Amino acid sequence: MKHVGWLACLCLLGCARGPNVSGDLPLKRVVVYRNGVGYFEREGHVDEERVAFRMRQRMVGDFLASLAVIERGGSSVRSASFPLEVEETFEPEPEEPEPQPRPLDGEGPKPSEPKPPEPPKKPDPQAMREVLLHLDGKEHDLAIGYLAETPVWRPSYRVVVTPDGKADLQAWGIVQNLSGEDWNGVTLSLVAGAPLAFQSTLGTPVIPERPVVTDQGEVVAVVPTGVTSLDLTEGSFVTGIADRYAGGSAPAPEPAPAPEESAAYDRDEARREAPEAEVAGGATLMSGSQRRSSKAAAKPAAQASPGGVVAPPPPPMAPRPAPTLSAPRRLSDLAAVALEAGTTRYDIPYPVTVPNDSATMVLLTSQRVPGAAVLLFAPEPGVAASSSHPFRVARFTNTTPGLLERGPIAVFEKASFLGQGMLEPLPPRATATVPFALERSVAVTSEVRVDQQGSRLFRIEAGALYIERDSVQRTRYLIDNGSDRPMKLLVKHPRQPGARLFKPPAGTEDNVGTLTALIPTELRTRGKAELTVDERRANQEMVNWLEPLADDAVRGYLADPRADPAIVQKLKDAWVVREALRKHTDEFNALSKEREELERLTNETRRSLRAIEKNPQAADLRQKLTKRLSDASTRIDAITKRGIELQMSIDEQQVRFRDAVLGLELDAPLPVKD
Asked: How many angstroms separate the Cα of 485 from the Cα of each of 442, 445, 526?
């Protein structure tokens, strides 16, 4: 008996759950998105003046915010009514305490204390509510579209790699039904995208707070000042307004039309002004004349897609065997891919049944794509061994017209399971590289060196010269292949922000958005390989015109055929003066250095002469030192004279050079050629 009672309770609970949204119209179409909502479409012939929907309280807001009426013909929807769930805020009246019998001799029970009032009840979000659509007639063909919460659909992939550089790719979509009702033979679409959707509280009454105005009496706090009145002569604007409302009489409003006339007017206006429009979920609004013409059609109306595109209903098809990893026998088994507003929609070509509280797996695509199994060196913090060993990866290109959403992918080769990975969102014509195992027979080490190279003319402004140099970072990868087969290795190199790859190896994929580069290299059987990645980042600095870096930058600009001819000519004229200035400056610097050396030698010679001044045996040495001192003094005098001449020439050349570069302006450098 106990088991029977528990079974009855479970049955009652299952019946009490009920569908989230149900109605008089059968469910015909379901579109599932990746953001927790689904678009549902119900359609049928109704010969009553209203259509009822039952839904949970938490679904009312979404239903009212996204309700789309798609009328196939007949009468029109006038209004939608629904009950409000109001939270109780009143306090119960206090009850009179019941008289208690008087205890004898001070003994007996004490009087009972009053019970505290129960807290107000809040609306139950799981309670079922009824929404009524009121029509202006009895005979009509009607389709209703709305949004409701539903689990996201999830993709699942399989890829079979082959040695010929091709791969068999399959994509499946897993749909879960927790709506409380079976989806029997519905037209199913899966959208690889997440349009903006939010929870609406249109089913909950809201009374905003208003400011409170109090009457505190009248108090004269200050002496009032006089005011100036406007001219109220006859014919003025203010006088006309005053005369119009003299005696407190306002203009009488026009009489309201009768209900029958108002309804007829609304229908006429709808026929004249209501063009075809798109509403939430992709439903289409139609005017009255369009509804009548659609009703006259013998064939059923076409289904409306979420993006507003109308597609004919799919023809009934016989049951098909479940597709395998190989291509399906009929291409019609595959979902039709449509691109709308930047999203990808998969339309399942045959009716789909998804029982309540269950999941269904449908085939989206199955085709042969470019792909192979290679190695990828990409150190991951969560995999310690990946800092010295590469991953085995499945690499393939998405040749389908739609986006492949993020999902798990199983990798096979030669009828064997190799591993499993996670496919990130893959747009059309993009290439995925999915790790699925670790290859320990290949070892990788790396080393980094940084240097400064090059000198390019960057800018000339107000007589100042700015050059551009490259901060060069070279990363060298040393690879040892200990396996008995040749392999292809991709190195996922972390890119330096603002740097460029200098002469990268052929086949390099530079992913600037992710600051990574995939650099390929071939590994021989039990061999070694070396891969060097050269990154260069430009740095600007101001230099003196006479420095060697300035000379290198200007000569490089003069030798570039892309240089501006006018600037080239001015630089050539200025460089003639600069060469003379540099030559005299170099000579002056050399003489200055020589003079310093001679002055040092002269001072030492004088000290030596003073040391042997009273030594009669050092006459020959005194004579030698005296001649050296005389020669040094003579050379110093010549250097001084030549230095004065050079200084005068340098001053003159500096003035000429400043005048030559003063009007020289270079705003933009030439593009860098690697």
From this structure: 11, 20, 8
Tokens of residue 510, six digits: 């530079």
Distance separating alpha carbons of residues 175 and 633, to the nearest angstrom: 103
Q: Nearest CA to 622 among 608, 604, 643, 634? A: 608
Q: How far is CA 648 from the centre of its chain?
A: 66
Q: How far apart are CA 139 and CA 75, in angstroms?
A: 7
Angstrom CA distances, 446 to 375, 443, 474, stand at 17, 10, 10
Residue 252, pLDDT > 50, answer: no
**Binning pLDDT at 50, 70 and 90, where does residue 328 land?**
low
DSSP letter for 37, please.
Answer: E
- Euclidean distance between CA atoms 554 and 460, whole angstroms: 11
Rounded to an integer, what distance in angstroms lies between the CA atom of residue 48 and that of residue 151? 34
Token duo for residue 24: 């008089």
Give the architecture (CATH level 2) of 565-662: Orthogonal Bundle (1.10)
Is-contact 367 346, C-beta < 8 A? no
Mention every residue, 6+ apart, whose C-beta is less than 8 A from residue 171.
Answer: 155, 156, 157, 363, 364, 365, 366, 400, 404
Question: What does residue 657 show for φ and ψ, rounded to 5 degrees?
Answer: -70, -45
- Round to whole Å and give the CA distance between 181 and 25: 13
Q: Taking the model in full, what pTM does it have?
A: 0.59
Mean pLDDT for all residues in the chain: 75
User: What gap in Å lies between CA 620 and CA 242, rounded to an integer?
Assistant: 132
pLDDT at 518: 92
The whole-angstrom separation of Cα 181 and Cα 67 is: 20
Tell which phi-psi region holds residue 240, choosing left (phi > 0), alpha (psi between -120 and 50) or beta: alpha
